[in-house]
Design goal:
- The complex is a heterodimer of chains A (592) and B (465).
- Chain A has 4 domains: 7-74, Elongation Factor Tu (Ef-tu), domain 3, CATH 2.40.30; 116-191, OB fold (Dihydrolipoamide Acetyltransferase, E2P), CATH 2.40.50.100; 205-440, 3-Layer(aba) Sandwich (Rossmann fold); 457-591, Bovine Mitochondrial F1-atpase, Atp Synthase Beta Chain, Chain D, domain 3 (Bovine Mitochondrial F1-ATPase, ATP Synthase Beta Chain, Chain D, domain3, Orthogonal Bundle).
- Helices cover 34% and strands 23% of the residues of chain A.
- Chain A contains 16 helices and 26 strands.
- In chain A, strands 8, 18, 19, 20, 21, 22, 23, 24, 25 and 26 form a 10-stranded mixed β-sheet that branches.
- The longest helix of chain A is centred in the C-terminal third of the chain and has 25 residues, at 457-481.
- Chain A is globular.
- The longest helix of chain B is centred in the C-terminal third of the chain and has 25 residues, at 368-392.
- Chain B is built from 12 helices and 20 strands.
- In chain B, helix 2 packs parallel to helix 3 (191-203), helix 9 (368-392) crosses helix 11 and helix 11 (426-437) crosses helix 12 (450-464).
- By secondary structure, chain B is of the alpha/beta class.
- In chain B, helix 3 (191-203) links the parallel strand 14 (180-189) and strand 15 (210-216).
- The relative contact order of chain B is 0.12.
- In chain B, the strands form 4 sheets. In chain B, strands 8, 10, 13, 14, 15, 16, 17, 18, 19 and 20 form a 10-stranded mixed β-sheet that branches. In chain B, strands 1-2-5-4-3-6 form a 6-stranded antiparallel β-sheet, with no helix packed on it.
- The interface between A and B is large, with 77 and 82 residues.
């Protein structure tokens, strides 16, 4: 079957959007090569024989009359061993390769493969000739990095009988490793696969999320947890710590593979990840965090059209690792930039604008993206599980959450971490506002906590939450009458709430130990603080003076619980708890 | 005959800063256009939108006096380029890159596209070298590092120019002598404001290592679109070709954004918030993101953009979008200014994102992070108490709260306030911090590691006794 190459000419250029004629027969979302420099673009509108194209590279100096050639292929990513530890631009070109070709600055028209074609991987087959195989069945394994055993799978849309498979040995991603007999004939398979980014990889069914994604962040895990396969949004004005939070999640969450998409954000932030991750050790495996990470960078000064592509590239790679049975977490910083890119392209297309100039399809596009998350039963002969959790930052203008991107995101996601600039101003980090945030996974995951960490987890958490809620009501009164006018019981309550706020909810991302708090330690910390609350309530009832309570020594050692080394915190905590009981007891005795 | 030599007299429409030329061929997007008016004056424009047989051109010097009969346009076959040379130091240029200081034109060593290319994130070096500005609120609480972009958010009538000049005057990396240069880019400021900087550079002898790009309030607005790009092209050359440490001062970004809005309106684009174009974020990013350091290069570009917040509103699109791109912000406050405190830096909303990795042992001092966090927390608490005192009076406060209230006042008087020629070392700044802490109960210093309290706090008490 010979393909006719579609070739047209540019007739209009307006920023990243161009139009070309004589393109009848071109398909929506096919990739085209634009101009003499072969820039990469994607068809986004058809009108008779004129197509509108968004160009993923800078269009400076492009002229009407230059050629446009269709590749007759939708925008796709390359999947196979070699993705991990890499950093890609929005359309999956490795930045180190671009660096080798064009130096410190990114120039245009670089053509490169996403995955190294020369590198040989040690392939080990896990099934034998004659076996029946379906999409996503595993053919063999490759040790991709020290922690990730990459599974080589049958592409999702293929089914048949395995005719032959290579023996254990070294192969490049393009070498044939297996032959499958299908209804359409014999098919040679390589380790390298391609998949269109805008199409979700298929699964058998979606499960309810019931296992928490442990992130080592107290305010998240204990108060507003996200589940494996769940979705979360983290909106906040500038300077509220969105990026630090997402970095923390990328570093410490107990997913096996992490995809970090820097979408329209700062270049230095990507550099930070690139520098820091290789040095950090995963608390579970002790290996370098980079070995489980794929980075995708479309910084704010890189071409705007590729913003959209960067997020889809990221989620497709995430789905690919999910299909191997891994728990994958994807962080997108920030989805607002993606929405703005849509708005810019939409404006250039002269579409009818919706709210605040955003296109009317903003909501459906966002929903489509978040819906690709989930804990799922995978394709393939054996019923296996995998998950993709998605966490997206939202950057609302002026920190006002009523704008369209934040609102449309909140309609979709199940967890909302509201960042608060007041808290950030007083250096309460993470600046997640405990009164505005919510998680809809609490009930579903509470049985996991009760079983695996400590009993009555949910009650403990809800009690602390009620305390904080009560505190905010009392604060209103304090503002009017001053704290001294409150009865001792309420002053004691304020003191307990302050402790939870300052010593539990606050957590330093830059402290060696405090940056990651294991779930058991979180539970114990909260339990001791809850005990403190009960003890001092009891003490004031027995007429112990609040000033005496405030000056007890244990308060300070409770405040420093977060920085107690994670290895032997239990013993230290036991002492803290004993001291606390003794001190309060002796105060009560003194009164008598 | 190449396009370069054709004078098109086919101008069909002129509207606002835009001009439409018909019947042309082979013109590139963003190409530069030389325009000749009917009375012989030459102007420059740039292609904003290219069709097969017509183009939309934005005219930098304004469209006054253009006509559709005799005005001619010549397309020069390349995008906007700036001739660069090390002789640009000590010189002054206008909005189209021509010298305006009566000295002979420079002989360019190279001509570079003013739009530049994005720095490959893989090629970047993370900025972590501490720059001492001698200003306590910046060095101590919102540390500036080399390669950072840290804007000043100000309001009309506040002394932001003095502060920027003071930073330019005092900024240094401790203990090293390196080649240092200032690129000063004025967009739409008054000649009076520009003179303040020029005089200051003259007095300190900095003029010969300064390159200025001036577009004053009465110069054509549209030039403001290309001015910062020229300044940054020059800065990139000084930093990455000549290994210099370049400080770029951009003032006033508000005027830049106004010019951007003017063009968007003339093109009848769908407006975003407050009439600013939807792509303003991307556009500002192409300016701010040109700050940074590059692996294996000695030089760096540090940016201090200034902007005046309309009506002191930090949620206005200009400061808002800037804050989302830059690595922190220094916010000036009218209240402090009225109290007579210079510099009137409102500490609480300020931020330096690159601070954490630029401070500490071997960089500034081991206790820096703790001191900074504690100062923030204590000052925030003191400010809250001020609100409370306004309602219930000071007598209703507990002993502890009264100490915090006093701390906030002292903090403003001793830590924030300093002279406009006072150059404090980082040690001096931290010492003031510790002196302030000595008025608080030690048990309240929760944000500082105990070992630093032991090491630094008693020293202060000794001084006092």
């Amino acid at each position: 079957m010979s393909k006719k190459i579609l070739k047209g000419k540019i007739v209009r250029i307006s920023g990243p959007v161009i139009e070309a004629n004589s393109m009848r027969g071109a398909k929506m979302y096919d990739v085209v090569r634009v101009g003499d420099e072969n820039l990469i673009g994607e068809i986004i509108r058809l009108n008779e024989d004129v197509v509108t194209i968004q160009v993923y590279e800078d269009t400076n100096g492009l002229k009407p009359g230059e050629k446009v050639v269709s590749t007759d292929m939708p925008l796709s990513v390359e999947l196979g061993p070699g993705l991990l530890t890499n950093i890609y631009d929005g359309i999956q070109r490795p930045l180190p390769t671009i660096y080798d070709e064009t130096g410190d600055f990114i120039e245009r028209g670089v053509e490169t493969n996403a995955i190294d074609r020369k590198k040989k991987w040690h392939f080990k087959p896990t099934i034998k000739a004659g076996d029946k195989v379906k999409g996503c069945d595993i053919l063999g394994e490759v040790q991709e990095t020290s922690i990730i055993l990459h599974k080589i799978m049958v592409p999702p849309d293929i089914e048949g009988t395995l005719l032959s498979i290579e023996k254990e040995g070294k192969f490049t991603v393009e070498d044939d490793i297996a032959i499958i007999k299908t209804d359409q004939g014999n098919l040679k398979l390589q380790m390298l696969q391609k998949w269109p980014v805008r199409k979700a990889r298929p699964v058998k069914e979606k499960y309810d999320p019931s296992i928490p994604l442990i992130t080592g962040q107290r305010v998240i895990d204990t108060f507003f947890p996200v589940a494996k396969g769940g979705t979360a949004a983290i909106p906040g004005g500038f300077g509220t710590g969105k990026t630090v939070m997402l970095h923390q999640l990328a570093k410490w969450s107990d997913a096996q593979v992490v995809i970090y998409v820097g979408c329209g954000e700062r270049g230095n932030e990507m550099t930070d990840v690139l520098k820091e991750f290789p040095e950090l050790k995963d608390p579970k495996t002790g290996e370098s965090l980079m070995n489980r990470t794929v980075l995708i960078a479309n910084t704010s000064n890189m071409p705007v059209a590729a913003r959209d592509a960067s997020v889809y590239t990221g989620i497709t790679i995430a789905e690919y690792y999910r299909d191997m049975g891994f728990d994958v977490a994807l962080m997108a910083d920030s989805t607002s930039r993606l929405a703005e890119a849509m708005r810019e392209i939409s404006g250039r297309l002269e579409e009818m604008p919706g709210e605040e100039g955003y296109p009317a399809y903003l909501a459906s596009r966002l929903a489509e993206f978040y819906e690709r998350a989930g804990r799922v039963k995978l394709l393939g002969s054996k019923d296996k599980e995998g998950s993709v959790s998605v966490m997206g930052a939202v950057s609302p203008p002026g920190g006002d959450f009523s704008e369209p991107v934040a609102q449309n995101t909140l309609r979709i996601v199940k967890v909302f971490w509201a960042l608060d600039s007041d808290l950030a101003d007083r250096r309460h980090f993470p600046s997640i506002n405990w009164l505005k945030s919510y998680s809809l996974y609490l009930d579903e995951i509470s049985s996991w906590w009760n079983k695996d960490v400590g009993e009555n987890w949910l009650q403990l958490r809800n009690k602390a939450m009620a305390l904080l809620q009560k505190e905010s009501e009392l604060q209103e009164i304090v503002k009017l009458v001053g704290p001294d006018a409150l009865p001792p019981k309420e002053r004691a309550l304020l003191e307990s709430a302050r402790m939870i706020r300052e010593d539990f909810l606050q957590q330093s991302a830059f402290h060696d130990i405090d940056t990651y708090c294991p779930e058991k330690k979180q539970y114990e910390m909260l339990r001791i603080m809850s005990k403190f609350s009960d003890l001092i309530q009891n003490a004031v009832e027995k007429n112990v003076h609040m000033d005496d309570i405030i000056s007890i020594k244990s308060r300070e050692s409770i405040a420093r619980m977060g920085t107690v080394p994670n290895k032997d915190f239990e013993k230290r905590f036991e002492k803290v708890e004993n001291d606390l009981e003794n001190e309060i007891e002796s105060l009560i005795r003194e009164v008598k | 005959m190449s396009n370069k030599d054709i004078e098109y007299t086919t101008v069909s429409e002129v509207a606002g800063p835009l001009m439409i030329v018909d019947g042309i061929k082979d013109v590139a997007y963003n190409e530069i256009v030389k325009i000749k008016t009917s009375f012989g004056e030459e102007r420059t424009g740039q292609v904003l939108e290219a069709f097969t047989n017509k183009v939309i051109v934005q005219v930098f010097e304004g469209t006054k006096g253009l006509d559709t009969e005799k005005t001619s346009a010549r397309f020069i076959g390349e995008t906007m380029k700036l001739g660069i040379s090390k002789d640009m130091l000590g010189r002054v240029f206008d909005g189209t890159g021509n010298p305006i200081d009566d000295a002979p034109p420079i002989i360019p060593e190279d001509r570079r596209d003013i739009n530049g290319n994005p720095i490959n994130p893989y090629a970047r070096e993370y900025p972590r070298k501490f720059i001492q500005t001698g200003i306590s609120t910046i060095d101590g609480l919102n540390t500036l590092v080399r390669g950072q972009k840290l804007p000043l958010f100000s309001g009309s009538g506040l002394p932001h120019n003095n502060l920027a000049a003071q930073i330019a005057r005092q900024a240094k990396v401790i203990g090293k002598k390196e080649k240092f240069a200032v690129v000063f880019c004025a967009m739409g400021i008054t000649s009076e404001e520009a003179n303040l900087f020029i005089k200051d550079f003259e007095n300190t002898g900095a003029l010969e290592r300064t390159t200025m790009f001036l577009n004053l309030a009465d110069d054509p607005t549209i030039e403001r679109i290309i001015l910062p790009r020229m300044a940054l092209t020059c800065a990139e050359y000084l930093a990455f070709d000549l290994d210099m440490q370049v400080l770029v001062i951009l003032t006033d970004l508000t005027n830049y954004a106004e010019a951007l809005r003017e063009i968007a309106a003339a093109r009848e684009e769908v407006p975003g918030r407050r009439g600013y174009p939807g792509y303003m974020y991307t556009d500002l990013a192409t300016i701010y993101e040109r700050a940074g350091r590059i692996k294996g290069k000695k030089g760096s570009i540090t940016q201090i953009p200034l902007l005046t917040m309309p009506d002191d509103d930090i949620t206005h699109p200009i400061p808002d979008l800037t804050g989302y791109i830059t690595e922190g912000q220094i916010v000036l406050e009218r209240g402090l200014h009225k109290k007579g405190i210079y510099p009137p830096i409102a500490v609480l909303p300020c931020l330096s994102r690159l601070m954490d990795r630029g401070i500490g042992k071997d960089r500034t001092r081991e206790d820096h992070a703790g001191v900074s966090n504690q100062l923030y927390a204590a000052y925030a608490e003191g400010c809250d108490l001020r609100d409370l005192v306004a309602i219930v009076g000071e007598d209703a406060l507990s002993e502890r709260d009264r100490k915090f209230l006093k701390f906030a006042d002292e903090f403003e008087k001793r830590f924030v306030a300093q002279g406009d020629h006072e150059d404090r070392s980082i040690e001096q700044t931290l010492t003031i911090g510790w002196e302030l802490f000595s008025s608080l109960p030690t048990s309240e210093l929760k944000k500082i590691d105990e070992k630093y309290i032991k090491k630094y706090l008693p020293k202060v008490e000794k001084i006092r006794s």
